[in-house]
Amino acid sequence: MIGATPLDFSPPVQPDGRSSLDRSRMESERALEKGFARFDWYSLRLDGTPFWLDVALTIQPSWGAGVLHFSGRDITDRKQAEQSLARAEELARVTLQSIGDGVITTDGEGRVTALNPIAEQLTGWPQTEALDRPVGEVFRLVHEDTRRPIDNPLLRSIAEDHTIELPGTAVLLNRDGVEYHVENSAAPIHLPDGTLAGAVIVFRDVTDTRRLADEISHQARHDPLTGLPNRREFEHRLGELLEQARRTDAVHALCYLDLDQFKVVNDGCGHAAGDQLLAELATLLHHQIRRGDLLARLGGDEFGLLLADCPPEKALHIASELLVSIGDFRFRWGERSFTVGASMGLVPVSAGAASAAELLTEADLACYTAKDLGRNRIHLFRHGDADLARRRSEMQWATELRDALDEQRLLLYVQPICALGAVDGPPWYEVLLRLRQRDGRIVLPGAFLPAAERFGLMPLIDGYVVSRAIGHLLACGRAAGARLSVNLSGRSLEDPGVIGMIEDYFTDPGHVSGRLCLELTETTAVAHLGRTREFIHRLRGAGCLFALDDFGTGVSSFAYLKHLPVDYLKLDGSFVRDITREPIDRAMVEAIHRLSTIMGFATIAEFVEDAATLELLQGIGINYGQGFLLGRPAPIESMLAGIPQSALRTA
Predict the structure, then answer these.
(1) Pair 602, 581: CB distance under 8 Å
(2) Helix, strand, coil percentages in the chain from 3-state DSSP, rounded to 5
(3) Residue 181 in contact with residue 208, Cβ under 8 Å?
(4) Is the pLDDT assigned to residue 558 strictly greater than 70?
């Protein structure tokens, strides 16, 4: 446009902050001085939109003088590309400065070209000092266990031309000697034409994460009280030892240790004292064992010991020394001092063992046998050991009983107790127990009650029976009710749950006096004489009846009867079974009956299985009889269905 200057098509201020007038004057003076000037100029189109010019100012002769000649080329696209690249570079720079991972870049020969601040911090190398150094000098890795150098992943990525990732077993050795657990990956950098330009390694400090993971792993595998390995770790190590025995035919040993007097301390002084005793004993035993052996707390007052490369004879010697150390140990709590003992079970760990679980079961059995044989001793497991076989059977029954209780596979049967003379009263049945196995077979109590007694399950079983018997009595009501006799064990007399259940029944408005009879064995009653007498006195007033079961097989002292105000004496079947053939048995039955009559007790004879026995008992005057002749056991539901007692006699 004639008469216009470039300033007329320019904004007042250029992007660098200088005014367009000042900038144009400066560039013009430079061109006049040097004869030429070239620069980028920010201009405006006629419609006001901005654009960039590549301006060239030259001196051109005109009428004998030099004048400035202006020429410009539109470079808007180039400037925009440059600005985009600059923004991308700044973004990359800020990102590298900000991220929590360390980043190192190198050229194609593995020499450092850049480090971000995290990389500087972790390696200990400032970028100014690290530039152009071999990356292996700046970024040094060793294996966390072997401490041997690890091939630098960045150099491998250059050599193999693909991404290399290392697991978290690498340790970065800082320039100042500080160590960091790192996870890292390295990748080659390629130009657009595919040419290798260098490589980049990205790494993260996982030291705290690894430490936390190690702590969690340690806690999962160790007992918090003693610091010893726990059962889970012990079973794992036992499995490893068994595998080793199978590979090498080596023989190891497993020792199962159960403290004998722990309950005295724990119950007498409290759990804090019990915990302290366990901690002190754990320390004592740990210092006694050999290097390479493993001591663990398996739970409660039970410990396990793995003896590597240790045949049975040597294992017995080591266990004996431990037993002596435990016996010599004195635990002090306040002003009190305690001695403790231990029962130990030993089992060889050899290639022939079925499994780690089987070995633990065998060691537990051996320990249980040691405890049963008198405590404070060692029992070595041997296949074919009769005591161990019996105890294994009891343990299996104990497990079966617990499962049967959970799955309600304990069944109530009843057997009639029949009056042998003219006696009025409701139908009377003794409640008997059966166990239905998962295959449907019905098992008599003689098979499983010894295990229940030994493993302290009788209160659970008695509670199960009492609860259901009471439920049947309350369901029958007054009109069609029967009398039920329920057996109670000695331990149940001390169980508040069972006793509370019985007392609650007698406070229920639906109960009928005289319908529940509790049977206690002679041995149980005498062993808990004071408790039994108080219990009988308290419940008789509420309408509960009592029978002394199996009379004649226990202490057989009639003097105790004066202190036990029971209603019935049940003569043990061993006297009744042969009464027609053994004069002594007949004399015993007659004597017991005469004394019972004088003391006001009614008598019940068990094992009435033939007519001759029944006739003889009736002649003596026995009040009640029970046996197959009078009625076989049947499910308790038969009684609820209204089956009369006479029908049960032929069942």
Answers:
(1) no
(2) 45, 25, 30
(3) no
(4) no
* Whether residue 141 is found in the same domain as residue 26: no
The strand order across the sheet containing 302-307 reads 294-299, 302-307, 252-259, 342-349, 378-380
- Within a domain: 392: no
Please state the rounded mean pLDDT for residues 116-134.
91
How far apart (Å, rounded) are the C-alpha atoms in residues 573 and 554?
13
Output the pLDDT for position 650.
32
Compute the distance between CA of residue 256 and CA of residue 306 in angstroms, rounded to an integer.
Answer: 9
The DSSP 8-state label assigned to residue 606 in this structure reads -
270 and 326 share one domain: yes
Of residues 39, 28, 40, the one with CA closest to residue 66: 28
Give me the count of residues in the chain: 651
Q: Under DSSP, is residue 561 helix (H, G, I), strand (E, B) or coil?
A: helix
User: What tokens appear for 539 in the block?
Assistant: 């419940």
Q: Give the total number of structural domains in the chain.
A: 4
Q: What is the residue whose two structure tokens read 């657990």?
A: 181
pTM of the model: 0.53
pLDDT, one tens digit per residue, over 475-503 is 876 655 789 999 998 888 888 889 899 99
DSSP H or E stretch at residue 604: strand 602-605
Residues 488 and 543 in one domain: yes
Task: CATH number of the domain at 275, please.
Answer: 3.30.70.270
- At CA 291, angle to CA 286 and CA 297, rounded to 5? 35
Stretch 213-237: mean pLDDT: 89
C-alpha–C-alpha distance, residues 125 and 613, integer Å: 105
Q: What was the pLDDT predicted at 301? A: 92
* pLDDT at residue 101, as a whole number: 87
Domain presence at residue 400? no
Provide the domain limits for residue 63: 6-80
